[in-house]
Amino acid sequence: MLKGFKDFIAQGNALELAVAVIIGAAFKPIVDAITAVIMGIIGAVIGSPNFDSVGQFTINGSDPIQPGAIVTAIVNFLLIAIAVYFCIVLPMNKLKERTAKTEVEEEAVEVTDTELLVQIRDLLAGGRANVTAETTTGGDIETPRA
């Protein structure tokens, strides 16, 4: 039983999830601050810091029904989604693109010894003199006349 739990915890997905939860909890104050600033601006425009009281009504003297609370929740969700996208998703995507470009360039540059020997053999077998062959570093090598 403990071995199964240990395997689960050691799995990459469980560790990534734990890191995501911790980072999410640490990121919450930043999102809350951004939301407070934007909702403050909205409050200055409409006269209320949120939309909770917009469209408020009561039925037969009951507690007030606030359809504006839904609008406030939607605005908060959109603000959080925008903050997460620009602060986390966009930078991570750019980092992945840069990493992928570097890996592709490294793969394209790598030429094995066998391939180089085949190129040399083909050049020598062709009996061509003063032929330039591109090397893996991008420079030229001139083959001298025999």
From TrEMBL:
Gene3D superfamilies: Large-conductance mechanosensitive channel, MscL, domain 1. One of its GO terms (cellular component) is membrane. It is a multi-pass membrane protein. SUPFAM superfamilies: Gated mechanosensitive channel. The keyword Electron transport does not apply. It is found in: Membrane. This is Mechanosensitive ion channel protein MscL. It comes from Actinomyces radicidentis.
